[in-house]
Design brief:
This protein is an alpha/beta fold. The protein has seven helices and eleven strands. The chain has helices spanning 8-15, 62-67, 94-106, 122-133, 151-156, 177-185, 197-207; strands at 6-7, 18-20, 29-30, 32-34, 46-49, 72-76, 87-91, 113-117, 139-141, 165-170, 189-192. Helix 2 (62-67) links the parallel strand 5 and strand 6. Helix 3 (94-106) runs parallel beside helix 6 (177-185). The protein is globular, with a radius of gyration of 18 Å. The chain starts with 5 loop residues before the first strand and ends with a helix.
Length: 208
């Protein structure tokens, strides 16, 4: 879910994308993001983000999703094909666009946000904090272990006007990834659980 609805034109502007579709498409509104063609997509109110990964390419599911009633797609530019009953937002890189959209969304909320990172224990610490603070705050938090380059933006997009505190995990697997997650979460408080050998090695690599 997205904490607040967005028109497709607003999303295109936020990510620097090109809107392709019917003349009224700019005013279409979405309140759900999907990256998984198998999930309950929510039809016309869903923006499907087609991410090309090492094992699966979301662009291959666009036709099937169109038949299921999904009308809004964020796609890499080379896959941008005009459709009479759908709207396309074309961008150079859908993952980066998703991250930019989440950072844009986060910037509209001035609530305190705790960013939690470390080699282990991120989810445990996040859930401890939620248990401790849930009676005092209206908390938005990462679902499960959503702490990746995809999971973090999906988590941050859940922030809504009713929330008073955010708890978000951030995990990395490659040098340089934390900078992107920092820009999305925009934490006001940082928590480091621990630094294990694997990430210590990446710290040394990043510093050279």
């Amino acid at each position: 879910m997205i904490g607040t609805p967005y028109t497709l034109q607003a999303i295109a502007d936020a990510v620097g994308g090109t809107l392709i579709g019917p003349v009224d498409a700019a005013h279409w509104s979405v309140d759900r993001i999907s990256i998984d063609s198998r999930s309950n997509t929510g039809g016309e109110r869903t923006l499907f983000v087609a991410i090309a990964g090492p094992r699966h390419d979301g662009h291959t599911y666009i036709e099937a999703l169109s038949r299921q009633g999904v009308r809004c797609f964020l796609v890499n530019s080379e896959h941008a094909v005009a459709r009479p009953d759908a709207c396309i937002i074309a961008v150079p890189d859908t993952l980066r666009a998703l991250q930019r959209f989440a950072a844009h969304h986060r910037s509209h909320f001035q609530i305190p946000v705790i960013g939690i990172t470390g080699s282990n224990g991120k989810t445990v610490v996040k859930e401890w904090l939620w248990q401790l603070l849930q009676r005092e705050e209206h908390i938005v938090r990462s679902p499960g272990s959503y702490n990746s380059q995809v999971g973090v933006p999906l988590s941050v997009l859940r922030i809504g006007p009713q929330h008073t505190l955010g708890l978000f995990e951030a995990g990395i697997s490659k040098p340089g990834e934390m900078a992107a997650l920092r820009d999305i979460i925009q934490p006001t408080i940082g928590v480091l659980t621990m630094l294990g050998d694997a990430h210590d090695e990446m710290t040394r690599v990043s510093a050279t």
